[in-house]
Amino acid sequence: MTKLQHKISKKNPFDNIEEETVLNLLHTSDLLQFQFRRLFRPFKLTEQQYNILRILRGHGVPMPSLAISKQMMTLVPAITGLIDRMEKGGWVTRKRCDKDRRVVYVAITDLGIALLDQLDEPVGALDKSLVGHLSPNEMTTLISLLEKIRQPLETT
Asked: Which of 33, 62, 71, 72 might form a disulfide with 107, Cβ 3.0–4.6 angstroms?
């Protein structure tokens, strides 16, 4: 009996190794996301909002919202709503492009930068607590395998 099979009290083996692999990935993803949600909750921040702030800080200049969406770690069907809430929180500002009114530029504010600065150390510590027990070689192998799994999904 595998660990996942035991955890979910599955009496019979999985139908196939692919099913067990996907369920292990989903379960692991859920556990990781829970840890980040718990870290961000006191700041009234979601993982997606954190990701947007990181993208903006890393880019250094205002970005079109569509460009932000393309760099997101998660699929975000309604980035406009996310940015609306972030603007209300004071973390970002928006400005329409003078040349093309359909394009909206988003910039991180000083408050958004301060929030990220406050989170840098706890996020780094959480990363270490989540995967620090793996060796560098194991992490490299895991990264490679995850990239291989995503590859056909990201080209569609």
From this structure: 62
